[in-house]
Amino acid sequence: QVQLVESGGGLVQPGGSLKLSCAASGRPFSRYAMGWFRQAPGKEREFVAAISWIDITDYADSAKGRFTISRGNAENTVFLQMNSLKPEDTAVYYCVMEGTRAATIRRPDYWGQGTQVTVSS
Questions:
Q1: What is the predicted pLDDT for the residue at 101?
Q2: Is the pLDDT of residue 62 over 90?
Q3: What local confidence, expressed as pLDDT, does residue 68 receive?
Q4: Which uninterrupted H or E stretch holds 91?
Q5: How much of the chain is in helix, strand and coil states, percent to nearest 5?
Q6: Can you tell me the distance from the alpha carbon of 3 to that of 68, in angstroms, rounded to the nearest whole number?
Q7: Which 8-state DSSP code applies to residue 88?
Q8: Which one of 35, 98, 105, 121 is least enclosed by Cβ atoms within 10 Å?
Q9: Residue 23: which H helix or E strand, with range?
């Protein structure tokens, strides 16, 4: 079984920064990508960022230039550094994992419980 646990969400002012963390309990795939989706109130879940098994990254247009996804030193850990946050970034952020050779994530196989990010003054 795989479990994904997110942390690091909270309340920040516009222009501020947050760093989200995700820890996975295992690695069931020989090739996989990990990343982040988010869901704002009244909106569909959307892709944010992903990193492949060979550390190639992919970002949504809304995240490019502001967000950075990376792997940690520990096995099956991933981070999302979010800078220059905007009110429209307010959402529940979900850590995901997909068995794929690609850098992008289309159909996550596993989802975390989510962590709330609120950007407001």
A1: 85
A2: yes
A3: 98
A4: strand 91-98
A5: 0, 45, 50
A6: 23
A7: G
A8: 121
A9: strand 18-24
